[in-house]
Design a protein that fits this description.
The complex is a heterodimer of chains A (231) and B (464). Chain A has 231 residues and is an alpha/beta fold. Chain A has helices at residues 13-25, 36-44, 62-72, 86-94, 107-123, 159-170, 178-186, 196-208, and strands spanning 5-9, 29-33, 50-54, 77-82, 99-103, 134-136, 139-142, 147-150, 153-154, 218-221, 225-228. The termini of chain A are far apart. Chain B starts with a helix and ends with a strand. Classes of the chains: A alpha/beta (231), B alpha+beta (464).
């Protein structure tokens, strides 16, 4: 099996150099881009399994780059955001980033996040474990192909969204805690004040539409988490 | 309504009520006296006049009376008429009808004091009497101005002026009430809106404006409102600037921190190769130190330069110093370039200011120019002295890529990095510091693109 290829996009050349060295030592193949435009082009070339994207870049920002990538690709994207800049973080997650790492971070933390995302996106793919399909109402999930259908039509989900929906569908009719969802979808426990799960869930809600009575398919259960409505 | 309103209201009220009551009382008292006088004074004087006339007639005869009456008729005195027994007036004047018309009527109508029969020695009798309108005997009917009360001609009390006039006082007090309330409101209202604005500002809302609420009012209070608006706008500008700077600083400090952490991570990952990582860590910490240093310089400039540091700065020396330092750095770097200074015009010219700060400002501009000039290029510094405008002009020109026209002004803002600047080593503070220093010295700084390519920064400073 060839090494997983990661694309690093950041305008700080020196930092990029060091991260590249570090990740290569960790067993990844690393491509770099020093500006957003080159990053978008490289991400859309389809040669990388994951993109690490810095939000703060001159000219085209990481947010804009992310929305361009998402127009054409579902490649997992990990954002590097400034600590405390919640706006960037939430906009990024809404635009379909899979997770974020606050910058500055240790390279070890970055590598761990990269692995967590890759594990979840690649684990099911090609594996023969688990059920071939999960059905709940109009929802049909095919974990082995990481494919989802809603009322017979293909659902366009990012891999984090797929993982979330997968966890909810397996427990349809029962609430799933945010912690469980975070472990399952992001591969990490939920940090305090972390709104990532809420942002991802609201993206999924938009894609599913509403029940005939106007309620959402994914219900918020106060203090317990989220629950997929079971018909 | 606030306390101020009530204070104004009561003070004005009190003043006006006092005035109304005082004036009313004074008028009332005066008229009571006049009325009392009117009861006796005219009658008294009339009696006196008649007495005098009759005495004159009795003692000195008709001729003397004639002279006396002629004298009196020229004086502002009540007319005294003298009729002989045939009803002829002694001076031939027409006798007013109401005054009696003839002696017998006068005799009947008037009391003993206003008509007097004077028998002469020759047996004839003269009747002396007065014009009643002017004599003003007691019991004169009302309708005569000086006897009316202050309540007006139809005031029911006008007839009896000795009773205190209540209605005019009540009316006056009511009018005072309204006037006092209006005036107090007029003063208190803008003060209340000012207070509201200050309270909002104290809670951090500097968007509040009160100028509009003042309408077309033009007085000290309206000016105060406009002053407040200006202050709030200025404060907001400053605070926004500070907030932006703080935000930028935190971002700017993160870049070297991120590199530090990456270097530490690498050192842990490859302990054998730790030496290279250590070099990096050292480099990054030096960078952060410089950044903090520049930030401090910037904040010192913002807080206003040390006013005590005024000294005479020789420009030739200053420019040569900066150029020498820059040349040293260029020699040490991998990209050789020519640094040229043409500053003969500045010979012997000096300016007043802080030498250290001016050095720093010029150094930043020259370094910036060197940074963008490609290897083998030139950085050209030209000095000119304008004796008429009493200023010097220093132009620092480079052969770099220049700056997009829309950004020519922005490059002097903290942490601004031109879209063409990429992967450079600066912190984005150099030109911002240069501008602060130059402006603190009463000068100006601006950038323009050269026709031949590259950027030219012009510094103007007033000479001592």
């Amino acid at each position: 099996m060839t090494a997983t290829k990661i694309l690093l996009v950041d305008d700080d050349v020196e930092l990029l150099d060091m991260l590249k060295t570090y990740l290569e030592r960790e067993g990844f193949e690393v491509a770099v881009a020093t500006d957003a435009e080159a990053g978008v082009a490289a991400a859309l070339s389809g040669s990388c399994q994951l993109v690490v994207l810095d939000v703060m870049m001159p000219r085209m920002t990481g947010i804009e780059a992310l929305s361009r990538i998402r127009m054409a690709s579902r490649v997992p994207v990990l954002m590097l955001t400034a600590k405390g800049d919640d706006a960037d973080r939430i906009v990024g997650l809404e635009l379909g980033a899979d997770d974020y790492v606050p910058k500055p971070c240790t390279p070890r933390e970055l590598a761990a996040r990269v692995r967590a995302i890759l594990r979840r996106t690649q684990a099911a793919e090609g594996s023969e474990e688990g059920p071939a399909a999960i059905e709940s109402g109009p929802l049909k999930l095919f974990p082995r192909q990481r494919r989802a259908e809603w009322e017979g039509k293909a659902l366009d989900l990012t891999s984090t969204e797929f993982n979330l929906l997968d966890a909810l569908a397996r427990n349809a009719g029962r609430p799933v805690s945010k912690d469980q969802l975070s472990e399952h979808a992001l591969g990490r426990p939920l940090a305090r004040f972390d709104r990532s799960i809420d942002v991802h869930v609201s993206s999924i809600r938009r894609k599913l539409g509403t029940l005939p009575d106007g309620r959402s398919w994914i219900q918020t259960v106060v203090r317990q988490g989220y629950q997929l409505v079971k018909e | 309504m606030g306390r101020l309103f009530w204070k104004f209201f009561f003070v004005l009220m009190l003043a006006q009520v006092t005035t109304v009551v005082g004036v009313s009382t004074a008028i009332w008292l005066r008229h009571r006296n006049v009325a009392a006088q009117a009861e006796w004074a005219p009658g008294h004087s009339a009696a006196r006049l008649l007495e005098t006339a009759s005495t004159t007639l009795q003692r000195d005869g008709e001729a003397a009376l004639r002279i006396l009456l002629e004298d009196w008729s020229r004086e502002p005195l009540p007319r005294v008429y003298a009729l002989d027994s045939n009803g002829r007036e002694i001076l031939g004047r027409p006798v007013p009808r109401h005054a009696g018309g003839d002696a017998s009527m006068a005799d009947e109508a008037a009391g003993p004091r206003s008509v007097r029969r004077v028998p002469l020695a020759d047996g004839r009798t003269y009747t002396l009497f007065m014009d009643e309108r002017e004599a003003g005997p007691p019991g004169t009917p009302p309708g005569r101005g000086e006897l009316r009360g202050p309540g007006g001609p139809d005031g029911p009390r006008g007839r009896t002026p000795s009773i205190f006039p209540i209605e005019p006082i009540v009316g006056g007090v009511l009018a005072s009430l309204v006037v006092a309330a209006l005036l107090a409101w007029y003063v208190a209202k803008p003060i209340r809106s000012l207070r509201g604005a200050f309270a909002a500002a104290a809670h951090g809302d500097l968007d509040v404006r009160i100028g509009d609420g003042m309408g077309r009012r033009r007085d000290e209070l309206a000016d105060l409102g406009r002053d407040f608006d200006r202050t709030a706008a200025q404060l907001k500008l400053l605070m926004d600037g500070q907030r932006r700077l703080l935000h930028d600083v935190s971002h700017e400090l993160r870049s070297p921190l991120a590199r530090l952490q990456a270097a530490v991570g690498l050192a842990r990952q490859q302990p054998g190769n730790a030496e290279a990582s250590m070099d990096r860590i050292e480099r990054e910490s030096v960078r952060m130190d410089k950044l903090v240093d520049e930030l401090l310089a910037l904040s010192r400039m913002e807080a206003g330069m040390g006013a005590g540091h005024e000294e005479s700065v020789d420009l030739t020396e200053l420019v040569n110093d900066v150029m020498r330092d820059a040349a040293f750095e260029v020699d040490a770097s991998s990209s050789p370039m020519a640094l040229e200074a043409d500053i003969d015009a500045l010979d012997g010219v000096s300016i007043k200011g802080n030498a250290e700060m001016l050095h720093r400002a010029l150094e930043n501009v020259v370094r910036n120019a060197a940074r963008y000039t490609p290897p083998g290029g030139h950085v050209h510094v030209v000095g000119k002295h304008d004796a008429v405008k009493r200023e010097i002009r220093l132009t620092i020109a480079d052969e770099g890529p220049g700056v997009v026209v829309a950004e020519l002004e922005s490059i002097f803002e903290p942490f601004y990095r031109g879209t063409q600047a990429q992967g450079t080593r600066g912190h984005g503070l150099g030109l911002a510091i240069a501008r602060r220093v130059v402006e603190a010295h009463g000068g100006s700084i601006r950038a323009s693109n050269r026709a031949s390519g590259g950027l030219a920064v012009e510094i103007r400073l007033p000479t001592a």
